[in-house]
Design goal:
By secondary structure, the protein is mainly alpha-helical. The protein is built from 16 helices and 4 strands.
Length: 541
C-alpha cells in the first residue's frame, strides 16, 4: 500500500512516526550503515600511500638587463617546454627509471609504454612569477614535483630532474650562443664580400667616368666658364693682332715697299673682323648665361647653338675669301712696283713674321680650347644619365654597407653573449630549495574519505529504510487502518506473549546475512583499494 510515510495525521506528530520507522527497520538501517562505513574504512585504509617531493628552481640573471638584453617574451617558457620534452623522452625516462628502480611492480605486470606514461604523469613542472600589465605571467621561478609510492626515492628523483633542468639550460644556452656566433660570422663574411664587390663596382665606375659624375658638375661648369673666358680673350687678341697687321700693311703700301702679291695674301677683309667681334660678343653672352643657369637651360642651349652657327659661318667665309684671293692673284697682271729691287726692311719683316706666328698660335690655342669646351659640354650633356647610373651603383653600395654594419653589430653582440654564456654569467637556473624526503604521504586523505563514508552510510541507511517502508503493505498502527478504510476501529490489541521462534530465527538469519554482507563489502573494498595507485591519483589529484 503506497502512502506518504512522513506526513503526520491530524492526531499524530512526525517524531513518533520516524521513531516507529527506526524501530521497525533498525536492523536494515544498521546493516546498510555498517556495510558502507566498513567498506569506506577498508577502502581508505587499504589505499597505498603516495609521496610527493618538490624542488624550487630560480631563474636568475647575474648581469642587469640594462647591460644585457633580456630574452624575448616566451623564450624562457619555450626553453622550459623543450627541456621537459627532453627529460620525458623515452631514453631519458628509461635511464631515470633504471637508475632509481622506479615502478618495479608496474614493470612486472604492464608494458613499457604504461610505465613511461605513469612516469610522465608523475613529473610536474609549474612556472611561477608576477603577472605583467599585458596579462601574461613573467616566469622568475618554477617548481618541479615528483609523486611516487616510495618515500625514500621520491626526493632523489626530484633533485635529479632539477639538476637535469639546470644542466640542460646551461648547455642549450651555450650551444645556442655558439651557433648564433658561427652563423653571424658566416653572414658577416658574405656581407663583407658583397660590400667589397659593390665598392669595387663604385671604384671602377668612378674611374671610368672621371669628370662626368654628379659631384663634378660644379667643377665642369667652373672650367667651362674659365675656358669661355679664355676663348673670348683669345678672340680679342686675334682681333688686335689682325688690326696691327692691317696697320703695318697700310704703312708698307704707302711707302711702296710691299708687292702686290704680298698684299693680296696678307689682307684681312673688314667683314672678317666684324665676324670676329660678333663671335666674341656671343661668347661673352654665353659665358654670362652659364654662370646664371645650368648647362641644360634653354637659354644656354640657344646661345651655344647660335655661337656654333656663327663660327661655322666664319669658317666658311674665311675659306671663300682665301679661294677668291688665290684666284685674283693668278688672274691679275703684276702691278708695277715703285722699286722692285727694294727689299722689305728687316725690322718690319721680323714684326710681320712675329704677328703671323702669334696669330697662328692663337688660332691653334683656339682650336684646342674649342675641343676642350666640346668635351666638357659632352660631359655636361651626359650628366643626367651618369647621375642615374651613379645613384644605382651607390644605392647598391649603401645597401651592402648598411647590411654589413648591421651584421657586424649583431656579430659583436653575439660574441659578447657567447662569452657570457661560456662564463655562466647570463641567464641560468639555480636550485633554490632542493627536494627533501616528505614527512608524510601527500595522498590519500584518509580522514576526508572516512568522513565522506560516514555521511554516505547515514544517507544510504535512511534511504533503505524509507524504500522498505514504501513497499511494505502491512498496517503498523490504528492510523494506518483508519487511513485505509472508513470502517470504524473499535479496539487495538497489542502483541501478547513471547516472540515466535520463527521470527527469532528470521531475525538471526538476517543478522548473520547482514554481517556476511558487511564482511564481504569490506573485503571487496580492501581488495579494490589495495595497491591501486590509479585510484589514489584520481581521488587526490
Amino acid at each position: 500500500m503506497a502512502r506518504d510515510l512522513l506526513s503526520a495525521a491530524a492526531d499524530d506528530s512526525l517524531a513518533p512516526r520516524v521513531m516507529g520507522i527506526v524501530r521497525r527497520r533498525g536492523l536494515l538501517m544498521a546493516a546498510v550503515f555498517a556495510m558502507i562505513l566498513v567498506s569506506a574504512a577498508a577502502f581508505a585504509l587499504r589505499l597505498p600511500n603516495l609521496y610527493r617531493a618538490t624542488a624550487l628552481v630560480l631563474v636568475e640573471r647575474s648581469i642587469s638587463e640594462s647591460i644585457v638584453r633580456a630574452p624575448v617574451s616566451g623564450e624562457l617558457e619555450s626553453r622550459l617546454y623543450v627541456i621537459k620534452q627532453e627529460i620525458l623522452s623515452r631514453d631519458r625516462l628509461i635511464g631515470l627509471i633504471e637508475r632509481f628502480d622506479l615502478y618495479p611492480d608496474l614493470r612486472r605486470r604492464a608494458g613499457q609504454q604504461d610505465v613511461l606514461t605513469r612516469a610522465r604523469n608523475d613529473i610536474i613542472v609549474q612556472p611561477a612569477g608576477p603577472e605583467q600589465v599585458s596579462g601574461r605571467t613573467k616566469t622568475v621561478s618554477f617548481t618541479l614535483s615528483y609523486t611516487s609510492d616510495r618515500r625514500e626515492t621520491v626526493a632523489d628523483v626530484t633533485n635529479a630532474v632539477a639538476a637535469f633542468y639546470v644542466q640542460q639550460n646551461d648547455r642549450m644556452r651555450s650551444e645556442e650562443a655558439i651557433r648564433t656566433t658561427q652563423f653571424l660570422r658566416d653572414q658577416l663574411a658574405e656581407a663583407r664580400s658583397q660590400l667589397d664587390r659593390r665598392e669595387g663596382a663604385v671604384r671602377e665606375y668612378t674611374t671610368r667616368y672621371t669628370g662626368e659624375l654628379p659631384q663634378h658638375v660644379g667643377v665642369n661648369l667652373a672650367t667651362l666658364e674659365r675656358l669661355n673666358t679664355q676663348l673670348r680673350l683669345n678672340g680679342e687678341q686675334q682681333i688686335r693682332i689682325i688690326e696691327q697687321r692691317d696697320t703695318l700693311f697700310d704703312a708698307l703700301r704707302e711707302t711702296g715697299l710691299l708687292a702686290r702679291a704680298t698684299t693680296g695674301n696678307a689682307d684681312v677683309s673688314p667683314e672678317s673682323l666684324e665676324r670676329l667681334r660678333q663671335i666674341d660678343e656671343q661668347r661673352q653672352k654665353l659665358s654670362q648665361a652659364e654662370t646664371q643657369f645650368t648647362a641644360r637651360h634653354p637659354d644656354v642651349l640657344r646661345l651655344r647653338e647660335q655661337l656654333a652657327e656663327m663660327e661655322r659661318e666664319r669658317d666658311q667665309a674665311d675659306a671663300v675669301e682665301q679661294r677668291t684671293r688665290a684666284a685674283a692673284d693668278l688672274a691679275a697682271p703684276a702691278a708695277p712696283i715703285a722699286d722692285p729691287a727694294a727689299p722689305m726692311p728687316p725690322l718690319r719683316r721680323r714684326t710681320m713674321e712675329g704677328l703671323d706666328a702669334e696669330l697662328a698660335r692663337l688660332r691653334q690655342d683656339e682650336a684646342g680650347v674649342r675641343r676642350t669646351i666640346a668635351a666638357l659640354e659632352q660631359r655636361l650633356a651626359s650628366g643626367p644619365q651618369r647621375q642615374q647610373e651613379y645613384e644605382a651603383v651607390t644605392r647598391d653600395y649603401a645597401a651592402a654597407r648598411d647590411l654589413h654594419d648591421s651584421v657586424l653589430k649583431r656579430y659583436g653582440d653575439a660574441q659578447f653573449t657567447e662569452r657570457l654564456e661560456t662564463d655562466r654569467a647570463g641567464e641560468r637556473f639555480r636550485i633554490l630549495d632542493a627536494a627533501l624526503p616528505p614527512e608524510g604521504p601527500a595522498a590519500p586523505n584518509r580522514m576526508r574519505l572516512l568522513l565522506m563514508g560516514l555521511l554516505l552510510a547515514g544517507a544510504a541507511a535512511a534511504a533503505a529504510a524509507l524504500a522498505r517502508e514504501q513497499v511494505d503493505t502491512a498496517f503498523h498502527s490504528v492510523d494506518d487502518v483508519r487511513a485505509f478504510t472508513t470502517v470504524p476501529v473499535l479496539i487495538s490489541i497489542p502483541p501478547i506473549g513471547p516472540t515466535p521462534i520463527r521470527r527469532r530465527v528470521t531475525v538471526a538469519l538476517a543478522t548473520m546475512g547482514a554481517l556476511a554482507a558487511i564482511a564481504l563489502a569490506g573485503m571487496t573494498a580492501a581488495y579494490v583499494a589495495g595497491g591501486n595507485e590509479t585510484l589514489v591519483r584520481l581521488i587526490a589529484f
